[in-house]
Amino acid sequence: MAVNFQELGADRNQEWRNEMRTRLSAKERSNLPRVKMPEMGPMERILGFMEVNVGLNEDAAVLESQRCLDCSTPSCISGCPVNINIPGFIKLIEKKDFLAAARKLKETNALPAVCGRVCPQEIQCEAQCIYHKMKKAPVAIGYLERFASDCERLAGNISIPPMKTGNQIKVAAIGSGPASLTFAGEMAKSGYRVTVFEALHELAGVLSYGIPEFRLPKSIVRSEIAYLEKLGVVFEKNVIVGKTLTIEDMKKQGFQGFFIGSGAGLPKFMHIPGENAIGVYSSNEYLTRVNLMKAYQFPHYDTPIVLGKRVAVIGGGNTAMDSVRVAIRLGAEKAMIVYRRSEQEMPARIEEIHHAKEEGVEFLTLTNPVEYISDADGRVRQMKVQKMGLGAADDSGRKRPVVIPGSEYTIDVDTVVVGVGTDPNPLIPRTIQGLEVTKWGTIVVNEETMQTALPEIFAGGDIVRGGATVILAMGDGKKAAESLHDYLQQKK
Amino acid sequence: MIEKNAVAGHDKLHFKTQFVTVRQTWEDDPMNKIVAKEMLSENVVKLVVEAPQISQKQSPGQFVIVRTDDRGERIPLTIADADKEKMTITLIIQKVGTSSHKMANLDPGDSLLDISGPLGKPTHIEKVGTVVACGGGVGIAPLYPIARAFKEIGNKLITVLGARNRELLILEKEMAVFADEMIVMTDDGSYGEKGLITVGIEKVLLREPVHLAVAIGPAVMMKFVALLTKKYDIPTIASLNTIMVDGTGMCGACRVTVGGKTKFVCVDGPEFDAHEIDYDEMLKRLNTYKKEEQVSYDGYLKSLP
């Protein structure tokens, strides 16, 4: 998506912005230290599922907003997959017009309270901040995004962005994760009648079943959904497209355009001996039981989970970190990350790794499981692992793990969570004829437009990417909404 | 063993179906409304539920995931029957724990909170000659639409039903409507012939050529039916009922080993080649939450008025 510098320039040249820039010199601004995110102490937070990051207060947020130099060509924006007008909203915080800052975010981002919490800003917007060139810490854009959107929510004053007049054209989003929610918000703003179909009984996809309460409270997700409902988006739960309802049925119901955002729902296993032992979970199952089904409140809620005392989580991504931190909160005495490369290669956010360590997680890096050993009842009791070394870089640019012969040993475990990634959910690609699919099961799209081989069907998020982040999925949803709008307008 | 007074209560309920009027409009009305309820035995209840979309799409062998209330589990239930005109599906539930008991306690007019489906692959129905349909316990419920479909396509259908005793035998009359022959086996001999279901099946296999067997019931029963039909080299399919959460391939709770490979019952099944299934592993995995289920059930029973 191209950044519209003309629009940004006009926004920046408003009188108050010009005046704001002169209040403090660039030197004064750059000498301010980066704010620290207040958080619950590790010993306190592992007792429950309360949110770890507490959020900035007003003073801290305004002070941090003053650090932003309001660059004339802001490089941060190009680091954001949905091109939020970053200096635009930050300067509104500096002006102490927090609700206006929230509105500014909503112009481009339908889920700012979510993004402010789960986006890897350190490799996106904040990685592009001018401060890096000055050898200083970047502006805490993510914290400020969270602050502004939280202010709006807590004020109970959720604004509705400018909406185009309704055009009565029905469009559908399949799946209700971040890609679809963004698509739905954008289409609704453009005047379309949007229905979102979700297979589960709860909306928001990975934001509901995947990311734990302590990192993304479900109340936040619900309020983002409520906002979309205010925009006129209709949600239908318990509808499995391809099973309950086909694309053909939907066409008969008058839907003219479609967006597939069905995600990477299929868990990967390692196919090593003993993997079907009781107590060996996919991270999807482990997190779904806890986040979606509230197994941490069993027996108050009906869904149980094995409460492991010695838990090994296989993998080094955010999902693995979420799983291991859930294990700690479920009472594990020993919770381990078992990862075949070194910590440097871990795909998880640094903040998550840091939080996990604070909470007492042990990191067994350069270690790979080869077998699970269970007792007579079939419950996992031990895992056999081998040590790994690092060889030459592979396709991903990361050093390839190599087995060290004869290095096997066993570790006592009673729960294992396999968090080595997910594959695209084949349910939808399988049931739509004419859709082009790669050998990995992802849907082929035109990268510019997100259009599939079928002109009225667009796709984005993990069903196209295989396994990425919330914000990249949102970027896809936004792009697809723009393209579908163009497509439907041309068709008229 | 059933206590005397329980049997008395059961007699009163037996075949006394309660009905409510089928709705005319869908506006402002709860979804998934129960329109009829019948006790098939002391512990087995039949619910006819409004499911407009699922009733149109379902085929024999498919299942739904049901959640009774907002603290409830997601549990898989095979669709025992469907009525496209009335837009209903039939679910048959055996009271074994909290979720099933909650469901069995619902009455006509009440609603299930969530139903999603139809899930899983439909049974591959074809004309093969003679089909032996073997159902054990509450497994007779999912067997019912499959057996009927095999008959309707032109097969000779022999049903062998097994139950612990007469009271626990379900759908006998319904099956009799279309079965060419029916053999009933009870563990205690209180009805039909005394003995395990395999005894009844073997009698058929010794007597005449059989081209396909379908086995649905407790895992142990399917294991022994599979061993038997393997001996006679009869192709056999079994429909598995494992623990599930989402039912759409997302979690892998339902994984089983079939022919040495891990399969997901929800998307690869629920039916598999009965001779290739690792029943021992499946039996163990079914016990994953035995302790927790008891805790939950005890608490639930205590909470009842």
Could you characterize what this model shows?
The complex is a heterodimer of chains A (492) and B (305). Chain A has 492 residues and is α/β, with parallel strands linked by helices. Chain A contains 19 helices and 16 strands. Chain A has helices spanning 5-12, 15-23, 26-31, 42-45, 58-67, 86-94, 98-108, 112-118, 141-154, 178-189, 206-209, 218-230, 247-252, 283-292, 318-329, 350-358, 427-431, 462-465, 470-491; strands at residues 170-174, 193-197, 234-236, 255-260, 266-267, 280-282, 310-314, 334-338, 362-364, 367-374, 380-393, 399-403, 409-412, 415-418, 422-423, 457-459. In chain A, helix 10 (178-189) links the parallel strand 1 and strand 2. Chain A is globular. The two termini of chain A are 25 Å apart. Chain B is an alpha/beta fold and 305 residues long. Chain B has 2 domains: 2-119, Translation factors (Elongation Factor Tu (Ef-tu), domain 3, Beta Barrel), CATH 2.40.30; 130-286, Rossmann fold, CATH 3.40.50.80. Helices cover 30% and strands 28% of the residues of chain B. Chain B is built from 10 helices and 16 strands. In chain B, the strands form 3 sheets. Chain B has a 7-stranded antiparallel sheet with strand order 1-2-3-6-5-4-7. Chain B has a 7-stranded mixed sheet with strand order 11-10-9-8-12-13-16, sandwiched between helices. In chain B, helix 6 (197-207) packs parallel to helix 7. Chain B is globular and about 50 Å long. Chain A binds chain B through residues 199-201, 209, 237-240, 243-245, 265-267, 269, 271, 275-276, 278-279, 281-282, 284-285, 288-289, 293-294, 298-304, 306, 377-378, 425-427, and chain B through 53-54, 57, 67, 71-74, 98-99, 113-119, 245-246, 248-253, 255-257, 262, 267, 281, 284-285, 287-289, 292-293, 295-296, 299.
